């Protein structure tokens, strides 16, 4: 009986150690995936109280998978490379974000999807789709919010206010997608946002931002920045990783053309009101416009219409867009390059 009791005690201790190690190497975080379909940009950003190590060289960045021209995947909470690879493969096969999540839950590599969290978005030919999943056994506080062109998710958080602040910052920030992603992370820069880092005096231990363009290679993104304190770093962190990342991002911007006027040539299309619901597009000031594709989006980036430009003046009739007063346009060349973009009010 004594031998059995000792064996049972040993098993319990081993289970506790295994659980603790699992928590150390789990990936718990707050993050956002987003797509700017008008400018053809794919964004990924996040932070976590996980440091850099041989397992996670860039800290929280390990959860990010940006597939330019297709979509963005975040696999976080009890991170497993097999789940991330499966999600990548299914996105390449054309599955929607919700279908990918459903498949991940059914085919969890570790046999326990309840401890995982996912945020996924795809381009879908200019009609972005997003989906999120938070397992019931992720550590509190946990939640997610997925909308048309973005998804925000987090666990081991101070509370819902962290996710709400991130969402408000993202929706109200202007400019380049990278600027909006950094604003989103700044919305979560609260001591103990990831509660494990409260004793370190910061929101997190590592942070990252990644932005890919339509034609980027997955391993050579337009913007790919990260900051992480080592896992074995002792004592308080001197600077919040999100502020350090902001410094890196600001420096990156000084050497990179990122504002709208530089990403695309200045607006060269004139738009006039036609009869009824029609609009007249004048391409007189736009070079190489013949045979290019005119793409029209609503303010959220949802594709409304795409047609081939065959003449200097074109009348376009838009239906089913009565609620969209501000519309965006983009002119794409025959080689897929973007000739110009802009916006107009109906």
Rg is 23 Å
Question: How much of the residues is beta strand, in percent?
Answer: 25-35%
Large-scale geometry: elongated
How many E-type strands?
Answer: 17
Description:
The chain is an alpha+beta fold and 346 residues long. The chain folds into 2 domains: 25-254, Glutamine Phosphoribosylpyrophosphate, subunit 1, domain 1, CATH 3.60.20.10; 264-345, Immunoglobulin-like (Sandwich), CATH 2.60.40. The chain is 25% helix and 30% strand. The chain contains 7 helices and 17 strands. A 6-stranded antiparallel β-sheet has the order 7-8-1-2-9-10, with helices on one face. Strand 5 and strand 6 form a beta hairpin. The protein is elongated. It starts with a helix and ends with a strand. The model is unreliable at 10-26 and 259-266 (pLDDT under 50).
